[in-house]
Amino acid sequence: MGLLSVILAAIAGFAFGAAWYMTLAKPWVVVAGIDVDESGKPVNDGPLPYILSFFAMILVAGMMRHTFAMAGVDTFAKGLVAGLGVGLFFISPWIMINNAYGNRPFKLTLIDGGYATFGCAIIGAVLGLF
Asked: Measured between alpha carbons, how far is 6 from 61 in angstroms, rounded to an integer?
C-alpha cells in the first residue's frame, strides 16, 4: 500500500500543479521570463519538464510518506497540516533563497512557493488517507 499511496499522492500533487500554473500562467510567464511564441504560449522543448516534474513529485511524496510514518502522521487532517508545513516552511523558503540570489521577482517566489505549499498539503492529505 505504501507505493500506491506515494504514486496517488504524486499524481494529486502533479494535477494540482497543472491547475495552479494554468490559472497563473500569464503572470508566471512574465515574472519567470519565459520565452513565448506568437500566441503567447511558452516555448517548450518537449515533455522533459513534465517528466522531471512528475519524478520530483514521486520523490517528494515518497520522502513525505517516510517522514509521516516515523512521526505518526496517519490521518487526513494530520497529513494536510504536516504537508502544508513541509511546503510552507521547507520548500518555499528554499525557493525564495534561489530566487533572491538569482535576482528574480518576488512575485515568482509567491507563485512557485504557493504551489509548493498547497501542493505539499494535498500530497500530505492523500498520504494521510492511506
From this structure: 5
**37 dihedral zone (left: phi>0; alpha: psi -120 to 50; beta):** beta
CB-count exposure of residue 60 (10 Å: 0-12, 13-18, 19+): buried
Q: Which of 3, 122, 11, 129 is nearest to 66 (CA)?
A: 3
Q: Burial code of 106-115, b = ≥16 C-beta within 10 A, e = fewer?
A: eebbbbbbbb
pLDDT tens-digit profile, the chain (130 residues) = 799 999 999 999 999 999 999 999 999 999 999 999 988 888 887 899 999 999 999 999 999 999 999 999 999 999 999 999 999 999 999 999 999 999 999 999 999 999 999 999 999 999 999 9
In this structure, the dihedral spanned by the alpha carbons of residues 34, 40, 43 and 48, taken in order and rounded to 10 degrees, is 90
Which residue in the block uniquely carries the three cell numbers 504557493? 114
